Amino acid sequence: MNGRGSAPRSAGAAGSPERARRPGVAGVFVIGLAALAAGCSTRPYGDLIVGTTAPGASRVDLLVATTRAPVVDPPGVMFGGARGRGLQFADIVVSIPPDGARKAGEVQWPSQPPGDPAHDFVTLRADRMDLAQAKTDFNRRVSRTPGHKVLVFVHGYNTRFEEAVYSFAQIVHDAHVDVAPVLFTWPSGGSLTAYVYDRDSAVYSRDALEAVLQALTNNPNVGSISILAHSMGNYLTVEALRQMSIRDRGLPRKIRDVMLASPDIDVDVFRRQIAEIDAEPRATQFTLFVSRDDKALGLSSFLAHDTTRLGALDPTKEPYSSMLEQARVNVVDLTAVASNDVANHSKFATSEVVTAIGDRLAGGQTLNDAKPGLVESLGAFTHGAVDVAAGVATGAVTAPTRLVDPTANEKSVDTAEGSVTLK
Fold first, then answer.
1. What is the pTM for the complete model shown?
2. Treating both helix axes as pointing N-terminal to C-terminal, what angle do 233-248 and 206-218 enclose, rounded to 10 degrees?
3. How far apart (Å, rounded) are the C-alpha atoms in residues 58 and 54?
């Protein structure tokens, strides 16, 4: 999550905006109550038990690359919150219930794994792979994908492995876009109290994400790459892209779109990151999704001593407006859009937004086309040079938590000998 906090500060570094205002005791109390209410419910765990599909159900086939350590017990977890040694890979197929049995934009979690495929998301295959198998499997998938398009998803804070899998499967299905989906999942502790651990895990994983993106870029079977990141996953994503840009003197042209959904990034940090990326000419289109009523980012701001988070800024205000225009970052403001969760942190998973994403990506349009699209259909706001874009979110925020954390009993394996590094 993310938040607001202590007494307002004056401007920091040169050009920095006035710090975010403190929400007050009442605001912090409300956020705390929401977290406590979530903690009293059941949260999905161990759902990757292989089951069957149902008539009319759909299938989503995911390639997974992860820096999480493999879990051997309990079953149905596969990868946990501990950090692995290098990259691990998996092939996971998810069955999505028939359209008439579900609400688009949401994950229908099974009450008990493997679940009822007529009404629930069900795992059809969950196999670990080595690097050679992952390459062969990916080449098979991308070669039969129209336009050889790849969609990479990087989840956010407080996300367990199965939550990342099912959330991305929901997004791919509801977008109705034909891509080769790649999930990059990093070792989140999957707990509200693991914010610092998750932040460190994101930094721990940036070299691995860069390696995955380099491998995709260098693959002759890949035509284009779109990246969608959510919450703290944006920090990991932009850091990896910054490294790539410095190392290779710019971003590869195959990386067409980078979509930043509710990014938990300090505004001043992002200003430095995008400056390094822009040090060389870039064709990559960056799109930012903001919502000023995002309570999760409000909590992050609170923890970060009132620093403004990128995903909660007001794009009409200076110095944000000029910074975004100079960096050629497109913005869609979803503050007025209804949310499926009390934190207003997963607006991007709504059916209207996800469908608009698919329409634009499938049509081959760049995300700053001045054609009727996402902004017009949602009635959202764009400012100045800021134009239409698309975004994504994970439904993990809407999944409640347990008072007793089941992940404490996970048995991970040391992957020091079995890990791989992409070159």
1. 0.80
2. 60
3. 9
